[in-house]
Specification:
By secondary structure, the chain is of the alpha+beta class. The protein is built from four helices and ten strands. The strands form three sheets. A six-stranded antiparallel β-sheet has the order 3-4-5-6-7-8. The protein has a two-stranded antiparallel sheet with strand order 1-2. A two-stranded antiparallel ribbon has the order 9-10. The model has no long low-confidence stretch (mean pLDDT 92). The chain binds zinc ion (ZN).
């Protein structure tokens, strides 16, 4: 019987670049779950290390429970791309507002919906608080062209848009969380992130239909 011991080469999850030892040879480790000393060494060299989770780790080669690595070059490229996107978004949002709707009575002090040039044609509004963009709401565009009467809602975090699911009391269609029944309700979703079973807000209880 010969004994078999798993050896793995830790490498960049983006480009495959291997971690090397002091002599420049590929480093061999017994498992993808790395030890603290190696994590610290990699971080000091500019690698991004997302530590694995021993609780879900199913073995030495487990890619889910193991550490995930990004080499310095890939991490730098990703950060440059994120910076470029940050600048693009900031420039886009800095364009003059052509229309502003005050939603402070519905969502609280400082909340507005705004449109810039071209947004009206897209049935799109930015959800802002004190002038900072927190999300957007827009009529859903059908595949064949034309717009739904239901509204999509997206919350903005840094450079990423996250779809805000419609809660039960404000769905465009029953049992479908994809679209909200009205613009201001969609904005309410972005502003307050209500739980799925939330009550309809007071200002929306008088009528089913909301303003366009
Ligand atoms: Zn890489």
């Amino acid at each position: 019987m010969h004994s078999f011991r798993m050896v793995l080469i830790p490498q960049c999850g983006q480009c495959g670049t291997a971690v090397t030892d002091d002599a420049g040879r590929d480093l061999l480790v017994p498992a993808r779950l790395l030890d603290g000393a190696l994590r610290r060494r990699l971080a000091a060299e500019g690698w991004e290390v997302i530590p694995g989770t021993p609780r879900v780790n199913r073995g030495p080669a487990d890619t889910v429970g193991g550490d995930r690595l990004t080499c310095p070059a890939c991490a730098g490229r990703r950060e440059q791309a994120a910076d470029a996107e940050r600048r693009r978004l900031a420039a886009d949002h800095a364009r003059p507002r052509v229309k502003t709707v005050d939603l402070s009575a519905k969502l609280g002090e400082g909340w507005t919906l705004t449109q810039r040039a071209g947004d009206a044609e897209r049935h799109c509004w930015l959800v802002e608080r004190d002038g900072a963009v927190r999300g957007r709401v827009r009529r859903y565009r059908r595949a064949g062209g034309g717009f739904s009467t239901g509204w999509e809602a997206h919350a903005l975090q840094d450079i990423y848009w996250f779809r805000q699911e419609a809660v039960a009391c404000a769905q465009h269609r029953p049992n479908s969380s994809y679209l909200w029944s009205g613009r201001d309700l969609a904005a309410w979703g972005v502003a307050t992130n209500p739980p799925y079973g939330a009550d309809r807000p007071e200002w929306a209880t008088r009528t089913r239909k909301d303003t366009a």
